[in-house]
Amino acid sequence: MVQEARKSAVVGAAPQGASDARSAARAVREMFTSIAPRYDLLNHVLSFNIDRMWWRRTARAFCHIVARPDARILDLCCGTGDMTFALRRQAGKSSPQILGADFSHAMLQRATAKSSAAQNGSRPGWIEADALNLPFPSARFDLVTSAFGFRNLADYDAGLREIVRVLRPGGECGILDFGEPKGAMGALYRIYFKQVLPRVGTMISGVRGPYAYLPASVEHFPPPEEMLARMKRAGFAEATWTPYTFGIAGLYRGKK
């Protein structure tokens, strides 16, 4: 009960040394800038390539929107663009407007380079933007996604309200992020996530802070029932959570 109450009071990401929302956002930006050169490699190695399956599954969950050539889609906290590209592949021959947004310039540089290397199909657009203060008019998008980035926002409720603002009525949201599995799988996962992953991540990246922060950020993140309540308070008429891979990750879906 104490832990649940603490999570309910959580405002947003809390990197070590951050004292307020502004310093938390700055610390997160600096962390992702520091690991950008090895970000893709580390994601695939540390997740045993399961992350690719999670992106594909999330993109398929919104195939009814992605298949529409007139759809406008925003992928928030896009990093190097893996979720953005999964949406683009799901679209197939359709050509919806897909835009990836992130506040880390270093991450967007790599997303742009990956996009330039694409051999066919329309390419996503990219914009450097703060997820808490998006440079878009209200009711602009049919779908807003975020894969493993929402958890790093300095204010979760403000982030949800901004997503609701830029979604058109009837528009949908998909937030893919880590969870905390239960039972025996949860016990094994916590050993890997808290002991093995930080060491391997630090060894490959050469930077310690981000991979010590990762397990702490997942533990800090509100549990599914609390996130669903926050989504409804932010303005989503519908909100659901679907666990992926024993609850190691999961998809929050909302409809405006």
Can you describe this structure?
The chain has 256 residues and is of the alpha/beta class. It has one domain: Vaccinia Virus protein VP39 (Rossmann fold, 3-Layer(aba) Sandwich), CATH 3.40.50. It has eleven helices and seven strands. Strands 3-2-1-4-5-7-6 form a seven-stranded mixed beta sheet, with helices on both faces. β4, α8 and β5 form a beta-alpha-beta unit. The N terminus is likely disordered.
Quick synopsis:
By secondary structure, this protein is of the alpha/beta class. It has helices spanning 2-8, 21-35, 39-46, 50-61, 63-66, 82-91, 105-116, 156-166, 183-205, 209-220, 224-234, and strands at residues 72-76, 97-102, 125-128, 141-147, 167-178, 238-244, 249-255.
β-strand amount: 15-25%
Percent range for helical residues? 40-55%
pLDDT averaged over residues? 89
Helical stretch tally: 11
CATH class: Alpha Beta
Number of domains: 1
Structural class: alpha/beta
**Reported CATH architecture:** 3-Layer(aba) Sandwich
Tell me the strand order in the biggest sheet: 3-2-1-4-5-7-6
**Biggest sheet statistics:** 7 strands, mixed
Count of β-strands: 7
Order of helices and strands: HHHHHEHEHEEHEHHHEE
Globular, elongated, flat, extended or rod-shaped: what is the shape?
A: globular
Radius of gyration over all CA atoms, rounded: 17 Å
Uncertain stretches of 5 or more adjacent residues = 1-7
CATH fold-type name: Rossmann fold
- Our measurement of the CA-to-CA distance between the termini, rounded to an integer number of angstroms, reads 31 Å
CATH superfamily: Vaccinia Virus protein VP39
